[in-house]
Structure formats: C-alpha cells, structure tokens
Amino acid sequence: MxxxxxxxxxxxxxxxxxxxxxxxxxxxxxxxxxxxxxLLEQFRQVSPALFKQSRKWSIEKHRKRFMDWLxxxxxx
Length: 76
Known about the structure:
Elements: H1 2-12, H2 17-27, H3 37-46, H4 59-75
C-alpha cells in the first residue's frame, strides 16, 4: 500500500517542465511521439487555463491533456 501512496504523491507533485518532459518520455508507449521543450511550451501557450495558478507541471494534471493535444496535432 505504501508504494501506491508514493506513486500518487509523485504524480501529483508540481515540477519543472524539464522534469515533466523526462518523466513523460520515460512512461509513454514507444510508438507514441516524445515530448520536447518546444512542444511543451506550445501546449502551455494554447492551454493557459491549465497554468493559471502555476507554471509548474504535474503528471496528474497535464499528462493526459498533453497526450490528447499531441495526438490531435499528429492526426491533423
């Protein structure tokens, strides 16, 4: 049970864009496009509501939304 709490805390923790990018790229499926600083900055610009309170990133808050945004760009 303790492992689950650590994982939850890690996913909820607010972090830098670089730390988010590293974590994101390590955990996505190999066939999925990787995040880059440029793509993350573009995402932040088109999703200002997600960053109203802080410019920090979290896996819980931003990962799925970034994945959806990135896939929509790839399919356009």
